[in-house]
Write a structure and sequence with these properties.
Largest sheet: 7 strands, mixed
Number of strands: 20
Radius of gyration: 24 Å
Shape: globular
Strand order of the largest sheet: 14-15-16-13-12-17-18
Pathway: Amine and polyamine biosynthesis; betaine biosynthesis via choline pathway; betaine from betaine aldehyde: step 1/1
Protein name: Aldehyde dehydrogenase family protein
Strand content: 15-25%
Pfam family, one: Aldedh
Helix content: 25-40%
InterPro entries: Ald_DH/histidinol_DH (IPR016161), Ald_DH_C (IPR016163), Ald_DH_CS_CYS (IPR016160), Ald_DH_CS_GLU (IPR029510), Ald_DH_N (IPR016162), Aldehyde_DH_dom (IPR015590)
Family: Belongs to the aldehyde dehydrogenase family.
Length: about 500
């Protein structure tokens, strides 16, 4: 394939039908990393047609689960073979550190192996006792059909794997549209699927913008399921487009995630150091460009000043730079647009009365290399309140806001006062209290005395406007299946309901 043949349909790499091209930029210095095809609605239509044929006429949906599992394991092995190359590509494309890129590859590998193991051990379905020895009743699971997948720019490969692995394990075919900003590792993944022996037409890829490519996939009559990870506004449009066809829809739409820290977590020097360190990790990993980022620090009033002072001091010492350089702890924002958005959120917070404790500006050219990338200093905003825009909306940048509480009930109230409900954290030395608070938080994942780890065997998703459906775990596989009840009468006879 040439550089601009990044669209994969029915086993072939090709350019966009209309000839469109797009430059992929390195966010560390705004130079061109690659040029890819900029697809449109005709490319999406061709990809869906290929996936439809592969599902209706091809072998993959009827391939035994053991063989599907074996292919997923081959993909996992290939991911590890290419770990350094993929990690480097992810670092350069998305702006994260090289070590984060490597970790992403390992997490993707784990997802493929998990779903391989999950289906490999399945039997012929769940036998249902009909209460009649002459009836054999069983519940089976079948693939949904053609799946359309739209993935975000912040974790391109990871989010792709959360959709691709269970979809293939269940026997589906698919069309995937990565973010037009960060498509490179998804292209690599599709190459590995072909190398592992996936039949042509099962995996199809269209690079291009959300409108028209994503919009066309969401409304396409031959798509049976649409899985979208991204922002609330775009996710709402996807759901509206899918509604007339009554498609299955899975949406992960981000979060505004609280990190609740009780004073007793800071009662010892070790506890204090841990809570501050975890607050930094919660907010500033990948420059805050994480759907589950702990961007809202909710701290008990009695330890607020000491905690925030130390937090701000450490935030100022975070080393910014190109993610592939030794010693760099935080890379750039993904684009000029995201940088401008971050600046606007900080400006609005200061106008509404927030107090700047650290950051709040682009770093000086002498403080970061390269100097012309999309960098923004890790920012701590104190004295924040619930009416602020920076508190209510998902900022997706290196911004940490600080709110305070006095009682446990107040802490829970603040943490739940959001339209979102993706994730949250609770730090306390009192195990009973930590678990009690965790049980009251209306968030899909709650960490106690930790922040950010996830397990492929545990479901991921949110409450409220964080979306519908779940990824990972058994429910993540179930999203890509239809459930069928097969009732067999072993001794058929006339019913004689009607006399004639």
């Amino acid at each position: 394939m040439s550089e601009t043949e990044s669209i994969h349909i029915d086993g072939d790499w090709r350019a966009a039908q209309a000839g469109g091209k797009r430059e992929i930029l390195d966010p560390a210095d705004a130079t061109t990393l690659a040029v890819v095809a900029d697809g449109g609605a005709p490319d999406a239509d061709a990809a869906v047609a290929a996936a439809r044929r592969a599902f209706d006429e091809g072998e993959w949906p009827r391939t035994p689960v053991a063989e599907r599992a074996a292919l997923l394991r081959r993909v996992a092995d290939l991911l590890q073979r290419d770990r350094e190359e993929i990690g480097l590509t992810e670092s350069r494309d998305a702006g994260k550190t090289l070590e984060e890129g490597r970790i992403d590859v390992d997490d993707v590998t784990a997802a493929f192996r998990y779903f391989a193991d999950l289906v490999a051990g399945e039997s012929g379905g769940r036998v249902v006792d009909a209460g009649d020895p002459d009836v054999h009743s069983v519940v089976v699971h079948e693939p949904v059909g053609v799946c359309a997948m739209i993935t975000p720019w912040n974790y391109p490969l990871l989010q792709a794997s959360w959709k691709v692995a269970p979809a293939l394990a269940a026997g589906n075919t698919f069309v995937i549209k990565p973010s037009e900003i960060t498509p490179m590792t998804t292209i690599h993944l599709v190459k590995l699927l072909a190398e592992a022996g996936l039949p042509a037409g099962v995996a199809n890829l269209v690079t291009g913008p959300g409108d028209p490519v994503g919009a066309r996939l969401a409304e396409h009559p031959d798509v049976d399921l649409i899985s979208f990870t991204g922002g609330l506004v775009s996710g709402t449009k996807v759901a509206q487009a899918a509604a007339p066809g009554v498609k299955k829809v899975a949406l992960e739409l981000g979060g505004k995630n609280p990190n609740v820290v009780f004073a007793d977590a800071c009662a010892t020097e070790e506890g204090f150091d841990t809570a501050v360190d975890q607050a930094l990790n919660a907010a500033f990993i990948h420059s805050g460009q994480v759907c589950s980022a702990g961007a809202r620090l909710i701290i008990e009033e009695s330890v607020r000043e000491r905690f925030v002072s130390e937090l701000a001091a450490r935030a100022q010492r975070i080393r910014l730079g190109r993610g592939t350089e030794e010693g760099v702890e935080c890379g750039p924002l993904v684009s000029a647009q995201q940088l401008a958005k971050t600046e606007a959120y900080v400006a609005s917070a200061l106008d509404e009365g927030a107090v700047l404790r650290s950051g709040g500006e682009r770093p000086e050219p002498s403080d970061v290399r390269p100097a012309d990338g999309y960098f923004y200093s890790p920012t701590v905003l104190d004295n924040c309140h619930r009416r602020m825009k920076v508190i209510r909306e998902e900022t997706f940048g290196p911004i940490l806001t600080v709110e305070t509480f006095r009682t446990e009930d107040e802490a829970v109230s603040l943490a739940n006062d959001t339209e979102y409900g993706l994730a949250g954290g609770v730090f306390s030395a009192d195990t009973a209290r930590a678990r009690r608070v965790a049980s009251r938080l209306r968030h899909g994942t709650v960490w106690i005395n930790d922040f950010h780890p996830y397990l492929p065997q545990a479901e991921w998703g949110g409450f409220g406007k964080s979306g519908v459906g779940r990824e990972l775990g058994p429910h993540g596989l179930a999203e890509y299946r239809e459930t069928k009840h097969v009732y067999e009468n072993l001794r058929p006879a006339p019913v004689r309901w009607f006399s004639g």
